[in-house]
Amino acid sequence: MFLLTLLVTLLASLNSNAAVLPRQSNCVSQSQPNPIAAQYPNEVTGTINGTFSIIPIPYAQARALVPPQFKILTKAYQTLIPQLNGAYPLLLLAVFDSGIQSSGITIPNFSRATLNLPFVDLLNDGHSSFRYQLGNALNSPLAVAGASIYGPPAGELATFNPPCNAYASTGGPNGEIRYTGYDAVSSKQIANTLFHNQQGNPFSVDVFKNLTNQPIGNALLCDQFISFFNTSITQGQFAPVSVRGTVNIAQPLYPLGNQTFQGIWGYKADLAFLERNAQSCAKFANYQGTGPGD
């Protein structure tokens, strides 16, 4: 509850300066309502709507990005995702967080582009999988403060197009969608995704269940972010849709500089989430990367 307490405190301190919060006028979100708010009324829940994709990078690059005191559980990801042929699965979430609530308190919606390094052995026990927060660009000062708890690196303030949706249609024939993020200070583009619907995804939904349920942390404090794939907003007409496309990421989101990756696979989905903040990372010993959202 630490993050929620922090956000509520910040909201109270900013109540006379609403201009600090991102304005989203004349904008209607396409995200579905939070389907688990009544089930978990006193915990932090919401939805994340957007694209979830795997960017294969050389293991040597991943090793350079993960702090040297932490190992990477190569056997774990090679077993789960043998299709990578030895490459490492950098995880990109280009999403819109909405419907966030706990104990009758609501938090303003926000957009973000998040890069995670999964299968990191924060406990150095040889088998517990965590996500290391490589980069987190968000269009809410409150969310930046909350995300920075699990750094370094700290969260970065950004703007997004569209400002209050997970992506925007380009009008193309194959369901093309685009999502672009800009550094709030320099206005430089730091993330851009262009995906289209395509069957034949080499990565199953189960792979993303694993990745998005690994706790996020820095070895001291961890965020147990549980992604649900079995609620009403992920079933039937709202089931995850396989997508493929081009991703561009740049500093400060991606420390290695401006890079474009083509032929990237992922899923377009709206997931409910349950978040337990500021947990001791030690409590997740033996965690293998799956959660009750499966």
Describe this structure in words.
Strands 1-3-5-6-7-9-10-13-14 form a 9-stranded mixed beta barrel, surrounded by 5 helices. By secondary structure, it is mostly beta strands. Helix 1 packs antiparallel against helix 4 (141-147). Residues 1-6 and 8-25 have low confidence and may be disordered. It starts with a helix and ends in a 14-residue tail after the last strand. It is globular. Helix content is 14%, strand content 41%. Strand 5 and strand 6 form a beta hairpin.
Strand and helix layout:
Layout: H1 2-13, E1 44-57, H2 59-65, E2 71-72, H3 74-80, E3 88-102, E4 105-107, E5 110-121, E6 130-138, H4 141-147, E7 156-161, E8 168-169, E9 177-183, E10 189-197, H5 205-212, E11 216-217, E12 221-228, E13 241-249, E14 259-280
Parallel strand pairs: 6-7
Antiparallel strand pairs: 1-3, 1-14, 2-5, 3-4, 3-5, 5-6, 7-9, 8-9, 9-10, 10-13, 11-12, 12-14, 13-14
Summarize the structure.
The protein has 294 residues and is mainly beta.
Rg on CA atoms, Å: 18 Å
Shape type: globular
Major beta sheet summary? 9 strands, mixed, barrel
Number of helices: 5
Strand residues, percent: 35-45%
Q: Report mean pLDDT, rounded to a whole number.
A: 89
